[in-house]
Design brief:
The chain is of the alpha+beta class and 98 residues long. The protein is built from 2 helices and 2 strands. A two-stranded antiparallel sheet has the order 1-2. Helix 1 packs antiparallel against helix 2. The two termini are 24 Å apart.
Length: 98
C-alpha cells in the first residue's frame, strides 16, 4: 500500500553568491493524535533542557569574564530537573505505550 507523505524542502546557501547550497527534506508533522500526557511531559522536558543550556551559557560567560565558577548550584539543579523530566517522560512512554 502506498502512503503519501508530505515533505518540505529546506535550502541553506553556504556562501553569499548562493552558488553552493545544502538541501534537506523535512517530513510534515504526523496527523496522528498524540497522547496529551506525553505531550505535556515532553514540554516539561524541553523547558528543563532549555533552562539547563541557559545556565551552561551563563556559566561560560562568567568564566570568560574571569568571574570564577558561578552558577554551579543553579546548573546542578537544572541538570537534576532535566534528568527528572526525562525519566518521567520515558516512564510514561513505557507504561502507556505511546
Amino acid at each position: 500500500m502506498e502512503q503519501l507523505i508530505q515533505a518540505y524542502v529546506v535550502t541553506f546557501y553556504t556562501d553569499k553568491s548562493q552558488s553552493r547550497m545544502l538541501r534537506f527534506f523535512v517530513a510534515a508533522p504526523s496527523p496522528i493524535i498524540a497522547c496529551t500526557r506525553k505531550e505535556a511531559l515532553t514540554q516539561v522536558y524541553l523547558r528543563a533542557v532549555s533552562e539547563y543550556h541557559r545556565m551552561q551559557s551563563a556559566k561560560l560567560a562568567a568564566l570568560r569574564h574571569g568571574e570564577s565558577f558561578l552558577f554551579e548550584d543553579e546548573l546542578a539543579a537544572a541538570a537534576s530537573e532535566r534528568k527528572r523530566a526525562k525519566a518521567a517522560a520515558l516512564a510514561h512512554s513505557k507504561e502507556h505505550g505511546c
